[in-house]
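1st attempt posting a full record on here, be nice pls
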Amino acid sequence: MAEHPGFGVMPAWLLDRRGLRVQEPADRAGSMTNEVRAVLSGEVPGEELLRRIAPVLGFHAVDLFILAGLAVPDDMAPLDAAAQRSAQHIVMHAVHLPAAERRELLQLVRSLPQEERPSVFTAKPLASHAGPGGRVIRMLQYRNLDRLGMAQLLAVVTPTYLSAPTYSVIGSGGAELTPRLVMDFAAVLGIDARELAVLTGVGLREVPPPPAQEAVDAAALLWEARRLSAAQAQHVAELARSMRGESANGYFLNVSQH
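the predicted structure (as tokens):
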């Protein structure tokens, strides 16, 4: 594993990778121009600045908070922890559908009315020495996945097939991230694998291929399903299952290879 440079240098690296001018995040931040320049010089940004510059850097703000080692604000958490299992099955059924039907489900999820948050979302605590593995697991937790959900979803969408307890080991820093894990986590998170590798200090042996379209659609659905209540998620999961018809009794592993 390569030495992790720390989050403070990452915004400048991401801007350079995208060919963007330093002025781009400064313009987005408005009166916080001095803070932007400080961050681009290596300082860890504060909450308000992270919210403003995340779109410029091409990341969800919640992921930047996690990568920076900051507490995630309550408003960025999944709406309803009770939606967890249904949301997972929305994605697992959807990736077995034709592309057009996957798009229909995504549009449906986005169109559902926003309901009130029933309770404060609390992610399972990670060890203080969790390191890069802990940060990636935290990002999956904030996609409303528990360790069983991670194991099942990754097995269906990617070549990674691990037991649920293994994700706890990764999250606690007891197992290093491998290049294969980084590529597969990146696919489900909707993050460029090369960028996640740099952000976690993992060296990739070769340029990774682009993720399969099923994985791209899975990442989008998983993200959007964060805003669903338990009842909404159950409804969409049942619809996704019915759209599969007679094939809905099981799942292919690494579905894009079938």
